[in-house]
Structures are given as structure tokens and as C-alpha cells.
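Batch job 17 of 40 flagged for manual review because the log was empty.
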Amino acid sequence: MSQTPEIRKPLLPQLLQVPVIVAALGYLVDMYDLFLFSVVRIPSLRDIGVAEEDLLTDGITLLNSQMAGMLIGGVLWGIIADKKGRLSVLFGSIIMYSLANIGNGFVTTMDQYAVLRFIAGIGLAGELGAGITLVTEVLPKEIRGYGTTLVATLGVLGAILAYFVADMFAWRISYFVGGGMGLLLLVLRFNVFESGMFQHVKSHSVDRGNIMMILTNARRMTKYLMAILIGLPIWFVVGILITFSPEIGAAKGLIGIDAGKAVMLAFTGQVFGDISSGLISQWMKSRKKAIILFIGLSLLMMIGYLTIPMDTAYVFYVFCALLGFCNGYWTLFITIAAELFGTNLRATVATTVPNFVRGATIPLAALFVYFKPSLGVIQGALVVGLATSVVAVIALYFLEETFTKDMDYIEKD
């Protein structure tokens, strides 16, 4: 049976359950490893002999390798989580990406770097979806928004930690730290219990983790695609505007913009954005109203970041932090994905949707590169950014509200 503690009990004892804490710490390590590359991209590529004029194109190649791995891993781990259990993914994924990131510390060529970013991407793909699925299933519906906000907030702190570790240590050591943290966290996971909802479904003859149930059903497929599209602006900001902040800064006449500092400030802002959007959602009792607010704020800040003249790096970094804050509906985006589908497909959806959004960095980066020669860095980024925001708003309009939705049900043929 699913776990439904009494709402009259104090909030914190219900919220700070072992699965919630472990999922939050897991996402912290996940985000550290995922965004460490953005922080160490330039110094690591220089160190292995990449020429200055190739830093952007080779950086995109490595980013695409990582994101391609996440696309594959999202499908793989999502199916495993629905078929074998949420805990099997929490163990398997952390082992894979921890070992891969330790391997990243030993690379000496672009080929080695690309292969290991691909493997790390596969491993990283499983962490968030399985963790959010577990949290939404063990907490009562009235407070599960607080639980997923806690997970996402600690996760974003991992990106900030990546900046400080990379600032204190060489880039190779920074990768070793990330891999080591993952292996240490593995020990804590032995105390985590499986979702009661999943155990209940597992005890019956129910088709679980069958992605064809989504692909061959028009209603489910539409919901699935809409869930992906509402997250596009988030990853456009992270994967393009922040990751390539040195190039964007240079186009605005600012030389020496530090990508690591931009990432740290953006994710510091996103910590507060995730907290704010989660609390606003609980106050409004609506996921959709809070998300539309933050998409609008993100669009306004994106336009400002790209078009407002900036005389100093300080102003540029302030905009990075504000972009991060306005980008802070990642928590709600993942929560909606988990809430849209039944227990037998929930992990598949919650794992694949965010990773398809992350993987959307590949076509978004390709569009950015395509428009760059004719429109320039600024205008090219602006065109792609406007398009992602418009698409996200349209998709959100057609999605159902999931704030009070009961999670204990299954998808049937």
C-alpha cells in the first residue's frame, strides 16, 4: 500500500524522511558532476592541447557527447526504475557516473574526453528522475511540492560546489572529488526503503516501464511531449547562455568573462528561484500558474542579458545570477512530469523527460551555431531563446493542473 501519513502531523518529520534526504544529496552530487564540465571546460581543453580557436566547437562536441549519453540513459534508467524499482536505479546510476567522472580526471585526448562524458551522461541520467519519483510517492500530495523543492534546491547547490572546488583545485582533482562524493553517497543508500506505491503495483500483473504505452497512445504521447517542451527555456539558459558566457561576454565587448563564475552565480540564483517557485506553487495551489510566472520572468531577463549594454563584468555577472533565479522552475517542471502519469510509467516519464530536455541542448546548440554566422552571437542566441519560450508557454497551456492529483493509480492499455 502507498504511504500516506496524516497531514495533521508536523511538516518537518514528514518531509525529512530518509528517501527524501538521500534523493536530495544524490541530486547534489549529480549536479556537481553534471555542471563541473561547464566550470572546467576551458582550462581542461587547454590543458589537453586544444587550440584557442577550437575551444568553442570542441566544447560543444563534449557537451553534445554528455547530452547524448543522457538521452540514452534517460530511457534506460526510466524503464529499469519502473520494472525493477526506484532503488535499483539509485544504486546503478551513481556507480556509473562516479567511476566515469573519476576517469575524466585522467583524460589526455579529445576522444577520451568525449567517450567518458558520454558514459558519465548515461549514469547521470538516472539520478533525478528516480529520486523525484521516489519522493513524490512517499510523501502525501499536500506536501510533495515541498519535498521536490528540497531535492532540487540541494541539487542546485551541487553546481555551486563545483565552482568552489574547481577554484581551489586543478580540474583533474575536481573530477576526482565528484566521483569520490558519489561513491561515499552510495553507502547511505543502503538505508533507503522502496516506494510503497511501487511495491503495491509490483505485486500485481501490471505492465510496467513499457515506453510503447506512451508512444502508441495519442493522449499520453501529447502529455509527454508537452512536459518536455515546458522545460526547454531552462536548458537553453543553462546550456547556451551560461555555458558559453565567455563568448557572449566577448560579443558584448567584455573580455575575460569566467564561465565557472557565471555557472556558480546562475545556480546560486536558481537555488532561490527553486525555493521561491516551489513556495509560490504551494501558496497558489497550482503548478501551472507558478511556471508561467517564471517562464515570463526568464524571457524578460534573457532579453535583458543579451541586449542591454554592459560596461563591466560585474553587471554581466549580476545578470547571470538573475537569469538563474528566473530559471528556477526546474523543480516544478520535474514534479509535473512525475505527477502526469501512473505508478507503472511514472519513473520512465520522470527520468526521460528531464533528460530529453537536457538533450535538447544538442539541437538548441546547433541552431545557435547555425544562426551565429549570419546574425551574430547575440542575435542568434536571442532568436533561439524567444522560440523556446513561446513553445514552452503553448505547451503549458495544454497541460492539466496536477497540484492535488492523486498519485496512487496505474496507466492501463
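Reviewer: the log was empty due to a logging misconfiguration, but the result itself is present. The chain is about 75% helix and 0% strand. Unflagging and moving on to job 18.
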